[in-house]
Amino acid sequence: MKAVEYRLPQDLDKSFIVFQEKATFFPCPWHYHPEYEIVLVNKSFGRRMVGDHIGYFEEGEIAIIGPMLAHVWVNDPHYLSGKADGLADATVIHFLDDFLGKNLAKVPEMESLKDVLNLSNRGLVINGEARKKIAEVMSSMLDASGLVRLSGLFMIFDILANTKEYSILASPGYAEHNQLNTTDRFDKINTYIINNFDREISLPEIASIANMGITTFCNFFKKHYRVTFIEYVNSIRIGYACRFLSDKNKNVAEIAYSCGFRNLVNFNRQFKKFKNMTPSEFRKDITVEM
Fold first, then answer.
1. Distance spanning both ends of the chain, measured CA to CA
2. Residue 102 pLDDT exceeds 80
3. CA distance 206 to 79
4. Which residues belong to CATH 1.10.10.60 in the chain?
5. 212: Cβ–Cβ under 8 A, 6 or more apart, which residues?
6. Is 180 helix (H, G, I), strand (E, B) or coil?
């Protein structure tokens, strides 16, 4: 299933887009766009696909989708058949990285927001009190205009910059460019993994890239990535495998070997561990007609 690029029209007197999506069911197919997207589901439920993530959404959910990250919200059959009591309803905000000028990201007050925006390149679901606060602001923005409307978005930015109440959706391997790097060392490690995940990478090899001893590297990696090196590499491999599974012309064994797994049994085991489903089940879900 190939994602399509979507662009929304924007009023000339507005710097970003706020709109309400209200229909029998959410109509967008598997798609992507250059804007950041914040979605508040007011009513309806169903399946959520973001990158290589498949999960379920319900009323009240807030998700943040980074630029060019493929995604889709698919309502359950209750809505698709038109039998639901009411319409599927969502409030959506779209904004570009430079919607207020290219120097906005350099403003000191925006520094704490950057980490969240970088993480949104894998998709985020906002939880807890942060979700409640953002939902209130988004609901009020639909009828707002001018500086009141703009201040609403900055209120959301402030909430996001000061919360850890979120869940990350897609795997790090799905994103074409890893934007979580904060130092040259992280950049070297991530770049090397991305360029070599399709073969075995030994600990001495990757430790030398980071200019560390093996034990020091293992401790460093576990501290900063919160998983072991092998677990991280496998997550990268599974992320790329998910891309290939949408192509029905590739068989599962071929995909497994091309992503660095040396046997099909281990591939299936690791896929189930990361995705809670088999590769065949994932292929069936991701290739369903939208």
1. 9
2. no
3. 50
4. 184-286
5. 220
6. coil
Domain 4-168 has CATH 2.60.120.280: yes
> What is the rounded CA–CA span in Å between residue 7 and residue 139?
23
Task: Enumerate the CATH 2.60.120.280 domain ranges in the chain, comma separated.
Answer: 4-168
- The answer to whether 88 and 24 have CB atoms below 8 angstroms apart is yes
Strand pairing report for 31-32 and 4-5: parallel
Q: Tell me the CATH number for domain 184-286.
A: 1.10.10.60
pLDDT tens per residue, range 234-254: 988 988 888 888 777 889 999
| Residue among 273, 283, 275 at smallest CA distance from 252 | 283
Cβ-count burial of 282 within 10 angstroms (0-12 exposed, 13-18 middle, 19+ buried)? buried
- Residue 117 confidence (pLDDT) above 60: yes
The whole-number pLDDT of residue 208 equals: 95
Q: Which amino acid is at 43?
A: K
| pLDDT for res 182 | 41
Contact between 43 and 8 (Cβ < 8 Å)? no
In angstroms, the CA 246 to CA 274 distance is 17
Pairing of β 62-65 and β 17-23: unpaired
Dihedral (Cα; 214, 233, 126, 49), 10-degree rounding: 180
Roughly what angle, to the nearest 10 degrees, separates helices 128-141 and 146-161? Answer: 170
Which pLDDT belongs to residue 156?
97
User: What is the C-alpha to C-alpha distance for residues 229 and 219, in angstroms, rounded to an integer?
Assistant: 10
For residue 67, the 8-state DSSP code is T
Tens of pLDDT, residue by residue over 58-70, are 999 999 999 989 8
Q: Is 96 helix (H, G, I), strand (E, B) or coil?
A: coil
Question: For the segment 49-60, what is each residue's pLDDT rounded down to a tens digit?
Answer: 998 898 999 999
